[in-house]
């Protein structure tokens, strides 16, 4: 029992409580936004790929897997499905080769994303508050600290 109380106090530290608050909120927001995208017949993974290709242009599966922090096998599976749905197409220009093509949005993919994005943004704005610049700076500081440690 002594160790339980000692360890409970560790969880009550202000920085740990902040982490718990951010993490649990992130999980709920991510889940909620995933559910709203599902109602629009789109998964979060599909939306992230559409978003990336829309704003960044054609890319290779390797670059996409790194950017989205997803295994290459998972990216390949999603890309194949999205090709089957007519949302993306392969290209040998824009950094692709015959053997390892890059992927870009098709006209249908562009149209689909342009319909999804405003609805998704509306839901984000519905649930999110506006953070102060101080809070945004703190979040940036956390990301930068982790990036340095992961080098």
Description:
By secondary structure, the protein is mainly alpha-helical. It contains 7 helices and 2 strands. It has helices spanning 2-11, 14-39, 44-56, 61-68, 72-84, 107-127, 133-149; strands spanning 88-91, 102-105. The protein starts with a helix and ends with a helix. The relative contact order is 0.10.
Topology:
Layout: H1 2-11, H2 14-39, H3 44-56, H4 61-68, H5 72-84, E1 88-91, E2 102-105, H6 107-127, H7 133-149
Antiparallel strand pairs: 1-2
Helix pairs in contact: 2-6, 3-6, 4-5
Work out the count of structural domains.
Answer: 2
Main sheet: which strands, in order across?
A: 1-2
Chain oligomer state: single chain
Number of strands: 2
Give the class from helix and strand content and strand pairing.
mainly alpha
What is the CATH class of the largest domain?
Mainly Alpha
Keywords for this structure?
Arc Repressor Mutant, subunit A; 7 helices; 2 strands; 151 residues; mainly alpha; 72% helix; 2 domains
